[in-house]
TrEMBL record:
InterPro entries membership: Dimeric_a/b-barrel (IPR011008), YCII (IPR005545)
Record's protein name: YCII-related domain-containing protein
Pfam family, one: YCII
Top-level taxon: Bacteria
Length: 86
């Protein structure tokens, strides 16, 4: 599994791009690729948990969604995660 941590600014482009991004994440969730996703309570960023076998597949997901390169959205960190619960 992988975590993708995002940070947000107040750029208006981010909010305009968000509905399509959420649709993309919903489709990936339906396909079993996204386990969880959502913004932090203060809307300073978000966390996405991906159930993918390789960093290459994570990078492909990020490349396929223009939201990740939208002004106001920064990919802060992508890390492999090995949960022992859940």
């Amino acid at each position: 599994m992988w975590t993708v941590e995002l940070s947000f600014s107040d750029a208006p482009e981010r909010l305009a791009a968000r509905p399509a991004h959420r649709q993309s994440l919903t489709a990936l969730h339906g396909a079993g690729k996204v386990r969880q996703a959502g913004p932090y309570a203060d809307d300073s960023g978000a966390l996405i948990v991906l159930d993918l076998p390789s960093r290459e597949e994570v990078d492909a997901v990020l490349a396929a969604d223009p939201y990740f390169t939208t002004p106001g959205v920064t990919v802060v960190r992508v890390r492999e995660w090995v949960p022992f619960l859940g």
